[in-house]
Amino acid sequence: MSGHSKWSQIKRQKEKTDIKRGLTFTKLANAITIAVRQGGEITDPSQNFRLRLAIDMARASNMPKVNIDRAIQRGVKKGEGDIQEVVYEGFAPGGVLLIIEAATDNPQRTISEIKSIFNKAGASFGQPGSVSYQFAQMGQIVINKNGKSFEEIFEMALDLGAEDIGETEKKVIVYTKVEDLSRVRDNLLEKKLNVEDARLIRKPNVQVEVGGEQLGKIKNFLETINSLDDVQKVYSNLKQ
What we know:
The structure is a single chain. By secondary structure, the chain is of the alpha+beta class. The chain folds into three domains: 75 residues, Integrase, N-terminal zinc-binding domain (Arc Repressor Mutant, subunit A), CATH 1.10.10.200; 81 residues, Alpha-Beta Plaits (2-Layer Sandwich), CATH 3.30.70; 68 residues, 2-Layer Sandwich (Alpha-Beta Plaits), CATH 3.30.70.980. The protein has seven helices and eight strands. The strands form two sheets. Strands 3-1-2-8 form a four-stranded antiparallel β-sheet. A hairpin with a 3-residue loop joins strand 1 and strand 2. Helix 4 runs antiparallel to helix 7. The longest helix is centred in the first third of the chain and has 37 residues. The radius of gyration is 20 Å and the shape is globular.
């Protein structure tokens, strides 16, 4: 019986992992398709930096090449059920501002799912532009210190034109202008720095602190939205 129980646990865990992997691959595939569309249907990543970033993220998640190629081709095909990018803005409890970027073949379904989560959490939708002006679109590069000091990386990034630089215990976060992301990333790689990630983000101008029980509820709310297949990214000004 104990052996059967152990197998059941392993099977359930594998099913959860497969679901999570499938959800990730769906999001990554949609990001690749949108990148092709946004890049004027250019399918060469050396000529389409958004596509290059999307493919890099897919490879980092061990997404099979056949899935990547299929997502690229979907970006140049026109027809019913096309993937399109949609952006929603809103307000969570505690004065937390939200921007949700999604990729969907059915906007009505997507907004219905998101509004349902909003209603349950006591959050509210905003009009286009009601929140986005409080975020800056920037490039973000995450560097693993890997034995180097913050000061060393700071000097390199500053010389390359970084707009802002921060750090955690093991990483340095470099922020750039959108148009500088590709150049700064490539130059940092040339300097043999351990660049873990590079992407375009929406950085809040001002962050808010929320504590206690409400913080947990807001985090659960954000995680629930993030778990939707259609949702690509969720940005907030919550200080964590």
